């Protein structure tokens, strides 16, 4: 009886922590989010890949309430959420963080508290650090001019404060975008993981949209594996970065022996948004390639 109970408990934990495909969704401050926050069944997915777009200087009351409603609606249906907060404009377009450090850190503290508050409503496997840069991707903003020690000490301090405030306020694992920032701020620390917004953009030996700097790719591949493999590491593919060379529309190659499943296993990737890039989304919904999509899902669900 005890062996049986242990097996059930082990399976329950594995089911709770496996992610796999994470369905893209976004909510925006100042917009009508009623459709986005209402529950609708997900296709081959039990997780949301959620962008929360806020406007600098606004009080965030409406979008916080919308997020809490989403958390209740989806969490009660067994769906988890991987959130990232980014800044936008009142017209709905995306922008970088404001130049006011105090304002940013106030926003981080607010949202860390919100993520903590909803923990009894919905599972949050990981929070992507966000807040800085375009799309919250830690590039092109006033406080993220470069990666790692190439950035200023003042900017590195802001980056560290963002991550630590999210950690302490939410109680959840935090994912940084770039391994060089991770090494500069939390060297070797697997308690802070990574996310990758340009998975496989150059195929099995690519640079993943600057994730792995071209001048020393292997060093940062090895570092990424050291701190993030098997530690809720994931993200989405892309084909629009400057170093994008992979043809995502070549499904035979993508599904082949040196394709995406092999790459997932190499890095122990736990989740991916199947909505990006567009050819990957087309593959996801093409029933004639279902076996390939199922294999990708199974590979992702090995890791947590």
Automatic annotation (TrEMBL):
Signal peptide (from-to): 1-18
Residue ranges annotated for the DUF4874 domain, each copy included: 65-179
InterPro entries: DUF4874
Keyword Signal: yes
Keywords tagged on the record: Signal
Pfam entry (one): DUF4874
Protein name: DUF4874 domain-containing protein
Naturally occurring in which organism (per UniProt): Monosporascus ibericus
């Amino acid at each position: 009886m005890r062996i049986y109970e242990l097996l059930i408990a082990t399976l329950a934990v594995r089911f709770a922590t496996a992610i796999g495909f994470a369905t893209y969704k976004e909510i925006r401050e100042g917009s009508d989010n009623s459709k986005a926050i209402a529950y609708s069944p997900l296709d081959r997915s039990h997780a949301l890949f959620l962008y929360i777009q806020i406007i600098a200087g606004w009080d965030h009351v409406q979008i916080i309430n919308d997020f809490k409603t989403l958390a209740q609606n989806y969490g009660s249906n067994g769906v988890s959420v991987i959130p990232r907060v980014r800044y936008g404009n009142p017209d709905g377009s995306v922008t970088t963080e404001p130049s006011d450090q105090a304002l940013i850190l106030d926003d981080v503290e607010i949202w860390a508290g919100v993520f903590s508050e909803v923990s009894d409503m919905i599972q949050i496997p990981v929070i992507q650090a966000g807040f800085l840069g375009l799309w919250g991707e830690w590039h092109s903003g006033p406080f993220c001019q470069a990666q790692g020690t190439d950035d200023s000490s003042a900017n590195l301090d802001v980056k560290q404060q963002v991550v630590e405030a999210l950690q302490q306020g939410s109680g959840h694992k935090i994912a940084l975008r770039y391994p060089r920032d991770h090494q500069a701020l939390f060297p070797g620390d697997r308690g802070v993981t990574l996310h990758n917004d340009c998975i496989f953009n150059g195929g099995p030996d690519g640079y993943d949209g600057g994730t792995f700097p071209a001048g020393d790719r292997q060093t940062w591949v090895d570092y990424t594996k050291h701190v993030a493999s098997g530690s809720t590491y994931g993200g989405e593919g892309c084909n629009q970065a400057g170093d994008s060379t992979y043809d995502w529309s070549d499904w035979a190659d993508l599904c082949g022996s040196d394709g995406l499943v092999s790459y997932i296993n190499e890095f122990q990737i736990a989740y991916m948004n199947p909505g990006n890039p567009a050819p990957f989304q087309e593959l996801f919904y093409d029933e004639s390639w279902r076996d390939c999509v199922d294999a990708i899902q199974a590979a992702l669900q090995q890791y947590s």
